[in-house]
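Incident log entry.

Two folding requests arrived from the same account within the same minute. Monitoring flagged them as a possible duplicate submission, but the sequences differ. Recording both here for audit purposes.

Request one:
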Amino acid sequence: MEILLVVLYFSVLLLLCCYGVHRAHLVILCLRHRRTLERATRPPQLADSELPHVTVQLPLYNEATVVARLLEATATIDYPSDRLEIQVLDDSNDETAALARAKVEELRAKGIDIVYVRRPDRVGYKAGALDYGLSRAKGTLIAIFDADFVPQPDFLRSVVGHFAEEKVGMVQTRWGHINREHSLLTRIQALMLDGHHLVENRARFAAGFMFNFSGTGGIWRRQAILDAGGWQHDTLTEDLDLSYRAQLAGYRFVYRPDVLTPAELPEDMSAFRAQQYRWAKGTVQTARKLIRRVLRAPLTRGQRVEAMFHLLPHFAYPLMMLLSVLLLPALIAMPATDVKTMFIIDLPLVLGATGSLATFYMEAERAQGGKARSALRRLPVLIALGAGLAPHLTRAVWEGMRSMSGEFVRTPKKGIVAGRYRQTARLPWLEIGLATWSAASVVASIQTNHWFATPFATLFMFGYAYVAASVTAEQLGMRVDSRDVAASPAEVVSESLEQPEVARAA
């Protein structure tokens, strides 16, 4: 049993090291292809008479706190008025519908080509709304912004030049963070997203690998959407799904890290977990749908390998949770090693699993003009948060393996009214149990002289406890608020969803 335990423990750690080494490889690609990335920031400049017709799609569902900001920002985009259409694709069932209609009428009175589009049903959720709008759009290019984004005036002129090349199907821009400094949680989220945009997307684009439209802050060639089979809603990540189908159909994507579109990060742990759950489950569903097609496509070996890492990243979460569970019995069963053995075996594994993370996020910080050491300071909390999310996202991976599609759970936006939309969740009993288990691992690592294990056990303990405490406080606070609301004549709108967490208007 002891041998089996040791083999299983080190097998899990080695698999996690593979993910870590892959991150380091992405950093190397960014450095190797710096000139390609620089050239991409200089697309052909088009005269006004050469500019293509663009439709900007704004999918909405219960976004009362941000809808006015979104429409007003979109209306300021600098582009010839006879070549720009704005579609407000509204599926809302609360006061958002009235607010959006009123704002559309106000902007139309100012001469802006903006239309309010409402479907007879909400089939397909966001993907269904985008498809419905596409069938009525005027533009040959389709830009998309979620409700929590703030389009900048120069967005279209900065990117449309890329479409002078016939095979460019999509241009993705970088996400900014309006509320980056709001809390520790938002600062860590910002670092996570910066890693995705400033390392993963840059590396994949520059090296000629496939990457994805991020669902917002990007612009599509309409024909590329159609040639790829259109928007489909059999996964929860319709953006990733369409991206792969379009690139397999022969279209090339461009990434522009220098074009920034500000957006709002979730400020509550419950909302953040719900967002991550949807992304994880949808990515697994997309992998199930397309992985055989990717493996059979006429791609290079490097493209196939990178696509596997791209489509299967969330399997690291079950491994991380399993590692935290195995740590305590492994500490008790294995004798403490001497210093020489630690440096030969333990240290390389530690560096493979975490050292590459440091390199990854330092590059993300450097790429946006920040100081690499600021990423290092936040790295322990980022690792702990990843561990704390592992049980929830393990459930998402399981759900993605078990079923396709599902309910699309929107992420509540704070906007101008804090607390208007809240995220309900189950109380985190599993995280509480794992925090207690990891606390025992901390004690065991000290008592058995496994010094390399102590900081990792501490991070597991902190991560589980942080997530559990945050979610518990938010949910208990919501229950108190809900009783207050129920006692008043104010309307309460709720959604009954398949996911463990549901969006609720409180």
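Request two (distinct sequence, not a duplicate):
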Amino acid sequence: MNDVKTLIESIKNPETGNTLHSENRIKELKVEENALTLVYDREGISPLQKRQIEDIIYNELSGKVDEDNIVIKTVSKDSSDVLAKSEKTAKPKSEQPANLKVGHGSIPKKKKIDTIKNIIAISSGKGGVGKSTVSVNLAYALHRKGKKVGLLDADIYGPSIPMLLGKRDAKPLANDDKKIMPVEVEGVKFISFGLFIGEKDPVIWRGPMLGGVLNQFLFDVDWGELDYLLIDLPPGTGDVQLSMIQAVEMAGVIGVSTPQDVALLDSTKGLKMFEQVKTPILGTIENMSYFVPDDMPEKKYHIFGNGGVKKASESLGLEFLGEVPLEIALRESCDQGVPYMSNQNNEGKPVWNAYLSIANKLTGEDNKKGFFNRILGK
């Protein structure tokens, strides 16, 4: 493991450009089989520079040392110079931009957010089924019913919510309590990783770093009082999904799929993952069920098949929440960044009616006992 030791000694102090070794900052360096312990002197190194150093270490050691076996500690006799430096450059509180604290910490014990009544994840086993479009328009359908709604874009690798909401250039601010302020669009609050990076910037992160950001989006965002927080999950059953499940108490998950067999196969696998980790499945939505021409609203073209999600739901013993058709206006709303369900001109159209019907089921307005009571057995 001499190459690992050499690599650590060559890490540079961002403040001076000199290596940690040449500045005699390395106080302890223990390299064992697939394990590393480092203690270094961080005197004069700001918190941001400290994160830069440690991110470099984790990235450089990827594939050489198991990330779970890397322990990094710092010592400092007097950090007043670091504090003074940050105070000198601090902006007035009202102008503070929101920052993400990218870290490698473990996921905390599952918690409840007291100001949010229901947290619902929107999931799909396969990409390209329109899950983000469903998340956005379901949020506005709930808002139209008088509910206070938030939307969390958890698709770190492909955040599309800012585009769908017409807020590609928005930059979140931090309040006086250092909480991130969500961006509000037509009464719906949202946060997305896409607000913190350039649209063309790739995200080359591993699981623990993703988990850290998602925890901030859940617990360090000033959501205020919400009836519903919808979480737009990325496709699949990877780190992001597991991080969310482990981090926060959820009311449940809604599965989204198109009718064709390949999408149903992947979506079914995704839903079974949630069953295995004891997360309630509230039901399924069939997206792109059929196409409705503007000049023939009574006509239906089943482009991707007919009724596949409903049949799969019945076989799995799951609630079928409804089918959402395709309309030209729906496609145009996505491209223009104006959510379909926020535009009163769409009232009464098939897509409009579909989302309101699904929202009625979620709020319990289509049955006497109430949807959550019936599904969750309360």
